[in-house]
TrEMBL record:
Pfam families in alphabetical order: PRK (PF00485)
Protein name: Phosphoribulokinase/uridine kinase domain-containing protein
Span of domain Phosphoribulokinase/uridine kinase: 26-136
Organism: Tubulinosema ratisbonensis
GO molecular function per UniProt: ATP binding; kinase activity
Signal peptide positions (record): none
Length: 282
């Protein structure tokens, strides 16, 4: 597929998913550890700011449960350690335009959850939901926690009964699901360095963690028959060509369907100048 064909295809997908009469446009970003979910989320925030679109980011990492004080291995890839009831409550608050939101925060250095924290609902036009399992929130099937439990290894879970009908329904969301991928070796290399530096995990914890990361990725995150992503970006945010095409397609969508004025867009103080523009001013 040529770049032109890819651009046309991406624009068609974005348009079909977001050009609706729904009040809130949801961009759900799902991918394995180190695939660039937060990087893409931040890039979209900047792009939305340039386009004068209001945006809120819901990071599923903030809804991890506090690690039990028993020094047992904690599998962060296991869906059951997320406080899904709180996530659903927050999404419903957006969907129903409630005035106050109930949010949580999670710190990896001590594996501690804090909250609830109450904030005013900014009532955004765009809601970015990023996380390992974000697509399941908007899929036909969701996890069955009678079978999926944090103290069960992947080998102990019966995947024939690990899912059930998704109980949630949102009236005011239009949803675009973007999936990111990354190779096994790249993931392990990046994850090892990050967990040692940013999350203060010791070597033994990292070793145990990495035993489960790729298995969980294949079982939960790359389960496209369940999650049905609209767009898949191979190699995640390392795929600069696809990311640039995605950026251009969002801009074209906003121009065609949401009245984006490119003159204002280009004059925005948040816009990073092209290198050639910098040369002209030197």
């Amino acid at each position: 597929m040529t770049s032109s064909e890819m651009e046309t295809n991406l624009l068609d997908i974005i348009t079909s998913k977001l050009n609706t009469n729904k009040k809130i446009k949801v961009i759900a970003i799902q991918g394995p550890s180190t695939s660039g979910k937060t990087t893409l989320s931040f890039a979209l925030q900047v792009l939305l700011k340039l386009a004068n679109k209001s945006c809120y980011v819901l990071n599923l990492d903030d809804f991890f449960q506090t690690k039990p004080q028993n020094d047992e291995f904690y599998d962060y890839e296991n869906p059951s350690i997320i406080r899904w009831d709180k996530v659903f409550h927050l999404l419903k608050s957006f969907d129903e335009e409630r005035e106050v939101l109930e949010i949580f925060k999670f710190k990896f250095k001590n594996s501690l959850s804090s909250g609830p924290i109450y904030i005013d609902n900014p009532k955004p036009e765009y809601l970015i939901v990023e996380g390992l399992h974000s697509h399941y929130l908007f899929s036909d099937e969701f996890f069955c926690f009678k079978e999926v439990k944090f103290n069960k290894s992947l080998e102990q879970i019966d995947f024939d009964v690990a899912f059930k009908k998704n109980p949630m329904n949102y009236q005011n969301f239009s949803v675009l699901k973007i999936g990111l991928t990354i190779g096994k070796n790249e993931m392990i290399e990046i994850r090892s360095k990050r967990d040692a530096k940013e999350r203060s995990f010791d070597d033994e914890t990292i070793r145990k963690q990495l035993e489960y990361v790729w298995q969980g990725t294949e079982k939960w995150i790359y389960n496209y028959k369940k999650t049905k992503p609209d767009i898949i970006i191979e190699n995640g945010t390392f795929n600069f060509e696809c990311l640039n095409l995605l950026k251009m397609c969002f801009i074209k969508y906003w121009v065609q369907y949401e009245g984006l004025n490119m003159n204002i867009f280009n004059l925005s103080p948040f816009k990073v100048p092209e290198f050639t523009d910098c040369e002209k001013n030197t």
